[in-house]
Amino acid sequence: MKCVLHVGIHKTGSSAIQEAFDGYDDGMTRYADLGDCNHSIPLQIIFDRDLAADHQKRMGLSEAEMQAEALRLVQRLDQALEGDLQQLILSGEEVSAFPEHSLAALREHLLRAADEINVLMFVREPLNWQASVYQEVLKYGETDPFHTGNRDIRGRYVRLANVFGTDNVRVVKYEDKRQHGGDIISFFCDLIGVDRGQLCVDGTHVNKSLSEQATKILYRHNCLYPYRAGGGAVFQAHLNFFFHLSEIFDKDGKLDHAMFGVVVDKDDYIFLKDELGVNYDLSFPTDKDVVAYLDDIDPAAIAKIGSFLASHGFDYDYASDPDMAISTLFQFCAAQSFIEMGTVPNTKVDQLIAKRDQLEFERDHARRFPWKYLGQALGLKR
Questions:
Q1: What is the DSSP letter of 37?
Q2: Which position has the higher pLDDT, 148 or 19?
Q3: CA distance 47 to 68
Q4: Among 198, 218, 241, which residue terminates a domain?
Q5: CA 361, 362, 363: angle at the middle one, nearest 5?
Q6: Is the distance from CB of 90 to CB of 32 less than 8 angstroms?
Q7: Which H or E run contains 121?
Q8: Beta strands of 161-210 (E only): which ranges?
Q9: With contact defined as beta carbons under 8 Å apart, do 265 and 167 qualify?
């Protein structure tokens, strides 16, 4: 059996591939069922608890809960490796960030059942990739556009090649999906020899990006309220905040990717060209002030947030206090998350529902027994 290990990298269509293959098993090719179609966190929990620490802290899990989860996930991975298969697919962007000792542990485990492991790593045009990656990490509380974890293509490749062998690690340009009408799923199917028509997916998957102003507001929010932990409800509040921004600014302009030239590590792309023959145009400016760009929020964007909040009962003039608008929007999202997940009692709503039920009962009672209320109606009873 061959194991296909798809390792992203981030923002190269991985989510589309994972969602398309989730549950796939045609008897010859199987997509591993680890409880989540993105295998990043499950594989972190099994093979690199240091990398999984962020997930543990974010979700508020105890050490005992993490150990139990690791045992459960090993069982699921072993079940995925069972049977007379031709190939098993694992897909997780975070695997490309594993240190060598964790990659080696993963390799050893897979080779208990697999005869070979083929690693598939996508790379992307530098400006588009860097802007897209930054929008992604903003969702999880990041602020620094120069954060080194957003780069290091060369390091990722070298670690993978050292563990799995250069002949077993293939680097593919994300932009080559154009050969398949821009459909990354069809491109991936072609690479691994699976019939696209057997997947229960229609059309081309599109991963919607945040607009320019939504990105700047999320950046400002993260600067105001650094987020790293708090449990599931707090994590969901941040995701709700992200999705509300994407809806409020749905029709706004795109992020200026040219601003991220200063963030790109050109040495990564020189390495790709010189060592692997993967060539990208690097003739873009690298002297733009990306931080000043992210700090520059259009007053019209704050007005849009104010209109949204006013439609939900928050009547306040936010024009002179944009930080208050951003804070209030997040509090609105947090309240929604806490109520939906049952983390805190919805006291105000419960009180209003109880009052409504009481009034409806009194109304119906008065209609059935009007003489009981005649004295009160005439002012004779209190």
A1: S
A2: 19
A3: 14
A4: 198
A5: 90
A6: yes
A7: strand 116-123
A8: 169-173
A9: no
Q: Is 26 a member of any domain?
A: yes
Sign for the pseudo-dihedral over CA of 342, 60, 97, 116? negative
Q: 329: which DSSP letter?
A: H
Each residue's pLDDT tens digit, 321-335: 999 999 999 988 888
Nearest to 217 by CA among 309, 296, 316, 291: 296
Half-sphere exposure of 239 (CA within 13 A, CB side): 9
Q: Residue 204: how many CB atoms within 10 A of its CB? A: 14
Closest CA to 268 of 182, 166, 171: 171
In a domain, 47, yes or no: yes
Last residue of one domain, picked from the residues 198, 214, 249:
198
With a CB cutoff of 8 Å and minimum separation 6, the contacts of 346 are: 339
Please state, as a whole number, how many other Cβ atoms lie within 10 Å of the Cβ of residue 180.
16
Number of domains forming the structure of the chain: 2
CB of 157 closer than 8 Å to CB of 241: no
Cα distance between residue 324 and residue 232, in whole Å: 25
pLDDT tens by residue, 43-87: 999 999 999 998 888 788 899 999 999 999 999 999 999 999 999
Predicted TM-score (pTM) of the model is 0.79
CA 370 to CA 107: how far, in whole Å? Answer: 80
d(CA 286, CA 267): 13
Q: What six digits make up the tokens of 45?
A: 């929990």
Q: What are phi and psi of 358, to 5 degrees?
A: -65, -45
How far apart CA 219 and CA 214 sit, in angstroms, is 9
Domain limits for position 193? 2-198
289: which 2 tokens? 């002030």
